[in-house]
Amino acid sequence: MQSGGTTTVGSSGNDPDLLAANGLPQWVVRSLADNGIRRASEVTALSDAQLLKLRGVGIQSVKLIRTAVGYSSQPAGEERDEASSNTAPKDSPSGSQ
């Protein structure tokens, strides 16, 4: 294929749910299409871990996908663990200031 073409994968009009209509780079759309995923609603149903298991999808692809579809997949508990770890350590002795 030649670069610079405007061929979209799986396009049928101006359907906003199609990944090709979400401003994703063509290589990301193609990687997802190769795995049978053509719609933003299909991507939002998958976790980041599930996306990373797909052939041709890496961390950069997941970041681009999540930005384009306006959805962030945070594993349950990960955000809570980070928040609780911020309050746990106390380096300064109490009553010293």
Automatic annotation (TrEMBL):
Tagged with keyword Transcription: yes
Annotated region (Disordered), positions in chain: 1-20, 71-97
UniProt superkingdom: Bacteria
Keyword Membrane attached: no
Record key words, sorted: DNA-directed RNA polymerase, Transcription
Polar residues bias spans: 84-97
Bias kind Low complexity: ranges: 1-13
Gene Ontology CC: DNA-directed RNA polymerase complex
Protein's name according to its UniProt entry: DNA-directed RNA polymerase alpha subunit
